[in-house]
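Appendix C: a fully annotated inverse folding record. The material below is reproduced so that readers can follow the format used throughout the book. The structure is listed first as tokens, followed by the designed sequence.
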């Protein structure tokens, strides 16, 4: 049986609610703009939370819009810039599943189709409402015979389509959950990258903070090797809010604590410390998933560089106490996670790498002893792997080898690279 993917548009495929954005455009010069906009937003939220019927919400919003075709043109331009980040980077998934990745929305085809068609989504697989216009091009209503204009519209549509296959639903609102409630879909994934509604997440089969997460748990083609929302970033001490904002905006799971609590030690992937914070050697030695530490101050005397080297942990610090480093340090940490960059680290060879494109990047951290690169390249040669580029730098006892390879390879090569003698840590990136 085929798998079908039913994806919502507003606040899922895009970061925003399109009708709310249309109101911003159409009411730009209206004297009561803010009051009308708040009323439109209220209708949206009430429907998404299941407190009023979808038809009641839709009719109320369309009536307040005062929009025309020229406003729609501006909206489309705006929405193309507001595609959710995790959808934007996963065009390859839609290309490979163009016949089974569908958009099903209570929004309108007039603005949905131009946005999603750029992602290889076929027009016949876009199900949405349609506007009614008068002779002057003003929006005067919508097609009330379309099942998606009615309460439970997505359920009614899928009942009519009678799809033969396993259906997975992805969305942020109550109308998306109704598909699961109806028994028509296999699983419902609450999408929370843009907004999280407890009335929806409480009932979901799985909460997916990004489209990467959905693709990962279903073992589908995806742009990144591991969803960043699964990587825990712990922030401890006196750290400015901007630092947390930068890392959260990058998609990481953030926890802010006064101290490094024991329960987080084994799971933390990134650690950002405020001035004066100290990590005990015993605690640091148990942080097996820790990839990088950022320190807002001079790290000397506050954690063991030797243990970080032994565990392949990249350290970025702020020896001179510059104010801008509250932003600079978290950006360096993110650059290491995303691209493998170690530029300006305290303990690692400093590498500023080219952006990764159409390749898999293998990061091999090892003890700086003779013969390691020979072993690594022997594995690549035995598997006839096409290498696009390779970088090697050493610093003291640390060797850092970065290899960009063609994405088509036998996955046993990864296991063999991890088993190379003197390997400290191995990681794979792809985008």
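Designed amino acids, in order:
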């Amino acid at each position: 049986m085929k798998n079908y993917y039913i994806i919502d548009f507003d606040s899922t495929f895009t970061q925003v609610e399109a009708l709310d954005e249309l109101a911003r455009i159409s009411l730009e010069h209206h004297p009561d703009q803010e009051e009308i906009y708040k009323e439109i937003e209220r209708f949206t939220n009430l429907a998404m939370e299941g407190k009023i019927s979808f038809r009641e919400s839709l009719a109320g919003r369309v009536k307040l819009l005062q929009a025309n075709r020229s406003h729609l043109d501006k909206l489309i331009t705006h929405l193309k810039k507001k595609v959710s980040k995790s959808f934007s980077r996963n065009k390859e998934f839609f290309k490979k599943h163009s016949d089974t990745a569908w958009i099903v929305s209570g929004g309108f085809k007039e603005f949905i189709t131009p946005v999603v068609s750029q992602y290889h989504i076929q027009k016949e697989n876009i199900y949405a409402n349609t506007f009614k216009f008068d002779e002057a091009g003003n929006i005067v209503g919508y097609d009330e015979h379309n099942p998606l204009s009615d309460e439970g519209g997505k359920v009614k549509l899928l009942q009519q389509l009678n799809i033969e296959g396993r259906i997975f639903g992805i969305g942020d609102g109550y109308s998306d959950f109704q598909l699961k409630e109806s028994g028509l879909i296999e699983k419902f994934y609450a999408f929370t990258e843009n907004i999280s509604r407890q009335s929806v997440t409480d009932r979901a089969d799985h909460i997916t903070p990004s489209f990467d997460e959905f693709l990962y748990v279903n073992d589908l083609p995806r742009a990144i090797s591991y969803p960043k929302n699964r990587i825990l970033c712990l922030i401890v001490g006196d750290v400015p809010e901007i630092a947390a904002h930068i890392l959260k905006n990058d998609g990481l799971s953030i926890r802010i604590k006064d101290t490094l609590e024991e329960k987080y030690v084994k799971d933390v992937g990134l650690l950002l410390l405020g001035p004066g914070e100290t990590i005990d050697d015993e605690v640091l030695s148990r942080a097996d998933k820790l990839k990088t530490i950022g320190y807002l101050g001079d790290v000397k005397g506050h954690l063991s560089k030797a243990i970080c080297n032994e565990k392949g942990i990249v350290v970025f610090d702020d020896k001179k106490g510059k104010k801008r480093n509250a932003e600079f340090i978290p950006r360096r940490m993110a650059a290491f996670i995303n691209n493998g960059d170690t530029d300006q680290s305290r303990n690692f060879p400093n590498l500023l790498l080219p952006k990764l494109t159409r390749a898999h990047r293998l990061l091999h951290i090892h003890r700086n002893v003779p013969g390691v690169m020979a072993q690594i390249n022997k594995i690549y040669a035995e598997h006839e792997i096409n290498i696009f580029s390779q970088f090697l730098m050493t610093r003291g006892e640390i060797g850092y080898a970065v290899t960009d390879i063609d994405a088509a390879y036998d996955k046993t090569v990864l296991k063999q690279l991890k088993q190379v003698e003197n390997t400290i840590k191995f990681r794979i990136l792809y985008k």
